[in-house]
Amino acid sequence: MSENDLTRKLHFEPSTIETIDKSVLNYMEKLNLFSDSNEGWKKVPIIWASAERAYQVKRNKEIRDSQGMLKFPIISIKRNSLVKDMGSKGVFQGNVPEKSKTDGGSLAVGRVVYQEKTSKFASADALRLHNQSNFPRANPKVVYRTVVAPMPVNVTVMYDIIIRTEYQQQMNKLILPFVTTPGTINYVTLSEGEHRFEGFIQGDFQNNDNLADFSSDERKFEVKIPLKVVAYLVGQEDNRDKPHYSIMENAVEVKIPRERISLNEIPEHEFGSYYGLAGLTEPVFIEGFKAPFLFSNVPAANAGSGGPISTNIITQANFATVMADRLVIREVLKGSDDPVPDPANRVIVGGASIKLNTESLFLNGSFLAPGTLNDYTINGQTINLNFNLDDTDVLFITYIKE
Asked: Is the domain 17-88+152-234 a CATH 3.30.2000.40 member?
């Protein structure tokens, strides 16, 4: 799959108020309404009532005569109201917070396999375990790219479909599709791009003709058909600081580095193996996590590949011995019966040199903080306290040997 194909599959269109308006206009265009006129059997033009008159005159010249008057029959659409209906929340009855403070997005609306990264993980593991990048093996490390969109907000929008004609016969023909097209129900489907909305044609068709008016005005027939649309809005369009959708990738591997300082274990870095436990060569799946979460394990010294083995590999058999040789635990610097050192704020570590920033110093069971402005400083094997010790004080230290 190319990057362009991936982008197309991950595309998500925002839903705005104009999206809802266009879905209503699309529905009217699909009805394909025709009527008899003095120009013959002609398609009835559909206009949006909110457009400026100057714009309509320039863009839709065919709907006006030479004097600029509208030519009947004609159908206009007008949006009357928009209500954020809290009682109609749709599928999501509760609010879903955004997953990221920077990218935004609350709900996953699409997911595809990211082939490029997935193949890189497979090739890297095959090369590391079998010395062949294309070695056939199961690949549990599948990278998915997920489209995450903001929380949709349900709205109820009311429209008026206004039909104007010069003759009653024209009006009868144009009203008929609105009554019979949904059948014995009033539900219609509205669509624009990838979005689908629900429309409900109201049963009350309101007549507004001037037949009872015996003035000199031109006779006209007018019927108003209310249309209720239950739709949703996603994002704030151009006024949204965050993108109207985000693309996220899942984690496929968890790596926990080994503690090598305390054990003085230096791996054979020329083989590129810096992590793992000797003796375990297959991935270890963790219970409670859904695939593809796993711990990948590789021997620290290229074990099993025929290469040289490091002499300082830490195994289960020698772990305790190596740890005891490197780590000094609770070395007593002053006991409760020991005399106060001279000077009283200075003690000497007698076991071995302390590796920098590995010590933990405790006075009467309380942890002391290092630093000139805190409790103590260290110079080689000498500990300088910022206070004097008493006769009954107990001071001990845990550290890693240099």
From this structure: yes
